[in-house]
Amino acid sequence: MKRILLLSSFLFFLLSSIAYAEFKPVEIDLFVMSQCPFAVQVENTFLQIKEQMKKNLNINLYFIAQEQEGKFKSLHGKKEVEEDMRQLIIHKYFPRRFFRYLRSRNTDYRGQDWQKHAIFAGLNPQKIEYLVKKEGRELLRENIKRAQKLHIFSSPTIFINGERYEGSYSLPSLIIAIREKLSEQEKRSFPWKNLPRCFSDEDCHKKGKRGRCLSAGTSGARCVFSPLSPVTLTILSNKDFDSRVIEEWRRVVPSLRVKKLSYNSQEGKEVLKELGLDVLPVYILSKSVEELDNFQFYKARGLLIQKGEKYILNPQSVEINYYPYRKRKKKNLKLFVMSKCPFGIEAENEILPLARKRKVEVEIYYIASYNKQRKEWESLHGTAEAEEDMRQLCIKKYFPEKYFDYILLRNKNVHSSLWEKVARKVGIDDEKIRECQYNQGEELLRKNSKFSEELRINASPTILWENTRRFNNLKEFKDNVEMFKDIRVKYPGRCR
């Protein structure tokens, strides 16, 4: 009898252990670009975690891409789109081999030889190619809808059990975030149950609360939460503003208070004067925004700019701006670019031909700055870019009728040093341009770039339409200006 009782007790313990070991899987939704280095790093971290959690962790990949006129576009080009499709095919038809392929592929994610990683994972490359041609486009079309619906454009973006994760991407922090989704019973069988509760404030998350980590990194570490002070978002505008800004900040601060203020009101005029701004809309956050866990992140990234006791969203991060006090100039387009920026080049290639047809006046302004200490011009893509800016301004001065022809042809291979060949091909005297660049180039660039500085524009491309409406990317311009709705946007990005 005693033996039967002992056996029964042991079976109960064993079954209890099994019940603890297998619990409802934690769902990880990863929104990524397959050739984004930061996304690859995060994927690898979650693969490490899955090795220990096995079936208790589900990793779901959603790709960030766009489809336009039947063609898929992704930030890192055609090869990235092909890899997206490949991974979706492998995940659908060979799910047991998918993570082995991904782990291997991520060691050489930019390499062209994906086949060796497929073979390593026990897959037939020819079979994968066949399935990609047959079904890859449809799978990708369906997959990217999730990111588009949630307005997700940043890679990586992480959701854990349906909640957006805003903390550190380090292995310990991600493990802690997963553990906090478990019940007390489930935590007993968690592989890292003895890991401290937190290593920093970043590990302490609770919606609508301010988290602090006490005794960080020790066995006695704990998170203390306190209510956030009310955060007010004041929108100073005419009537147009981006409602997505409210949605985004409501996600960060559920109790966000929103106040709308007309720039024509007495209070609105006083606020504009106090902030020293002449552009709308202005998104103003109260000082209590400093209490947010990610405040330093927003500030370091330049997304928040301090103005006295308040913070404003950087106008460069807002899709559309309006200058209420600038005089409207009909059918005038000012394009602010860096001559070697791929996004600026795309804007020129799309806008210039259509502007000619529509008889729109186009002015190009270059984004560059003079380093007084070094006594030289600087641009994001190096000295060669500033030199190209000068050449283009010289062409504009001496061969204005050839200016856009040169730009469009030069854009086909702007990184080549053989600019003279392009100049001669469109009928420009390259010797005269070389002489101008040497004697007048710096002064021409100084005068031209002054306008970018006045408007505090430092991202390429930026478009000022009819002298009053500013668009901070090509897609927003296309979507809001009827005359240019036919332009194609391959990448809605910017150089800054």
Give descriptors for this structure.
496 residues, alpha+beta, Glutaredoxin, 5-stranded mixed beta sheet
Give a description of the structure:
43% of the residues lie in helices and 18% in strands. Helix 2 (37-53) links the parallel strand 1 (26-32) and strand 2. It is globular. Mean pLDDT is 89; it is low at 1-20. With 496 residues, it is α+β, with helices and mostly antiparallel strands.
Tell me the layout of helices and strands.
Elements: H1 2-21, E1 26-32, H2 37-53, E2 57-63, E3 66-68, E4 71-73, H3 78-93, H4 95-105, H5 115-120, H6 125-143, H7 145-149, E5 157-160, E6 163-165, H8 171-179, H9 184-187, E7 209-214, E8 222-227, E9 232-237, H10 243-252, E10 257-262, H11 266-275, E11 282-285, H12 295-300, E12 304-307, E13 310-313, E14 320-322, E15 332-337, H13 342-358, E16 361-366, E17 369-371, E18 376-378, H14 383-398, H15 403-410, H16 419-425, H17 430-454, E19 462-465, E20 469-471, H18 474-480
Parallel strand pairs: 1-2, 9-10, 15-16
Antiparallel strand pairs: 1-5, 3-4, 5-6, 7-8, 9-11, 11-13, 12-13, 14-20, 15-19, 17-18, 19-20
Helix pairs in contact: 3-4, 3-6, 14-15, 14-17
